[in-house]
């Protein structure tokens, strides 16, 4: 998106429903762990001020393993930004996602980690249910990491505590399990079918399709993925078509950029996401309405 269009959009109040504050160009895990509290606050303030400058008024984090998003919530209050965090994500040991939080084997491990999350006043529970899109093998998103009983227990625990459930899931099997368990939002949701779209619509589950990570690679014709661009384009096209169907079904879609991911910058990422939606054929006004209204609902503003 060019700067002129971005400036025009700054007049609207914008919500990014999927970011990772700990993934940025200012610090890495080692630097964070060795830093003073003053340095940490300065880093986070710098990122948040850029969001604020672009009139991005609310953010929902997907978790990290260094408690950066937990501290960010405090800093965001001072900046006048609404910020929601799961503190850290829950994933299965020996599966994708440990860099976003804590890896567990089963329910007993979850009980221990959930106690820590409650002590830190999580805003939502983040569960990583599957892997990510494999750019080298079309259709591969990794296996479903948790058994249905494990997933159901975690969802029930979060609901009893009174927080929503944000689930990273790709592929038909993983997304179907998340729908059945009654989660609140499904993140990414690549390579799903009409059945899953209908399921989300019927249960009132919000979908955050995160077009920017793949879309930005395609727009840049990224030479790092020269051999994978055809698969990336195919997966992206399926996602775009599913978003159009979702809108027709009145499925509640939210705009989340996955800021912090490769080629998705903090603050700029949500404008990329808006632009991808506009390129699908949605009007700017429709996209901004989806962004604000559905984003407000998901963040319970």
Automatic annotation (TrEMBL):
SUPFAM superfamilies: Metallo-dependent hydrolases
UniProt superkingdom: Bacteria
One Pfam family it belongs to: Amidohydro_1
InterPro entries named in the record: Amidohydro-rel, Metal_Hydrolase, Metallo-dep_Hydrolase
Domain Amidohydrolase-related: 14-301
Protein name: Amidohydrolase family protein
Lineage, broadest ranks: Bacteria, Bacillati, Bacillota, Clostridia, Eubacteriales
